[in-house]
Amino acid sequence: MRQLTIRHETWPLARALTISRGSRASAEVVVVEISDDGALGRGECMPYAHYGETVEGVIAEIEGLREYLEGDLDLVTLQGAMPPGAARNAVDCALWDLAAKQAGKPAWQMARMTAPQPLVTAYTLGVDTPDAMAAAAREVAWRPLIKLKVTGEGDIDRIAAVRDAAPNAGLIVDANEGWKSDMVEPFSAELAKLNVLMIEQPLPADADAALADIPHPVPICADESCHSRDGLEDLAIRYDMVNIKLDKTGGLTEALALRDAARGAGLGVMVGCMVATSLAMAPAFLVAQGTEVVDLDGPLLLADDRDDGMVYDGSTVMPPDPALWG
């Protein structure tokens, strides 16, 4: 008989991370474990307040399905039993891990994929003054791809300072809904001059229809606007790319389906993460295979990761060990 365990874990960050909506000093994650006849499957999520999620609420949502999770609830049934979001992500990934261990084969084989290869991830710098962001950029200027959190007014100065400090790095910019519509066209033009590769979620999700009519020489990627396959046709009119995060899709199952649907709609694909441990990165690593942008640096931002965490060689992340997940 299956047994379900749910717990809250706190993982301090190496340094506080500031975005347009505020700062955090730790990753507050929920871990789900489902054991069955000696096999143990694990999944991790990071509840996000911006989406109305709390640690307590996510735990209660999962606890409400205990009877079914300790019964015969499978991945297919789960998709209708829980909505997309952090709670379903932890459960979905735990069921994938459990199934892989019971079958004695890796999750990538169960997903009918080829063996995963190492990936180069972006490295994130939080919002700060131009001088402070330039100083932080000098420390990581050797990394091939740097992601800058920005917030609106003063962003051109911030990005220009980072470009001077890291002249050879690829740059992507994440506004986290912090811009106004009249900023998009002039900011995009200036960022094109600074060789910025992509702008992530410039406008609030409920105001992004304006993007369909705004010229932007730098590709724009949907993050907060993209959770699952619902509404993908509208996003294809407004955006050039989508950022797939398992905490938004509600797990690996929907993330893989969203990736394929996005490609079918002509959209580029980025795979990102919340700030979390390697247990959350491992299933996302499968989705990130072959995508245009990879942003799986969560463990690099922590003071410490799990003992069986993923191996990072600079910005190159290796496939997860099955002892961790999958």
Average of the residue pLDDT scores: 97
Strand and helix order: EEEHHHHHEEHEHEHEEHEHHEHEEE
Instruction: Count structural domains.
Output: 2
CATH topology of the largest domain: TIM Barrel
Number of DSSP helical runs: 12
Biggest sheet, strands in spatial order?
Answer: 5-6-7-8-9-10-11-12
- Just name the CATH architecture of the largest domain: Alpha-Beta Barrel
Helix content: 25-40%
How far is the N terminus from the C terminus? 21 Å
Can you tell me the CATH superfamily of the largest domain? Enolase-like C-terminal domain
Helix/strand/pairing category: alpha/beta
**Regions with pLDDT < 50 over 5+ consecutive residues?**
none
Q: Biggest β-sheet: count, sense, barrel?
A: 8 strands, parallel
Characterize this entry briefly.
Helices cover 34% and strands 23% of the residues. It is an alpha/beta fold and 326 residues long.
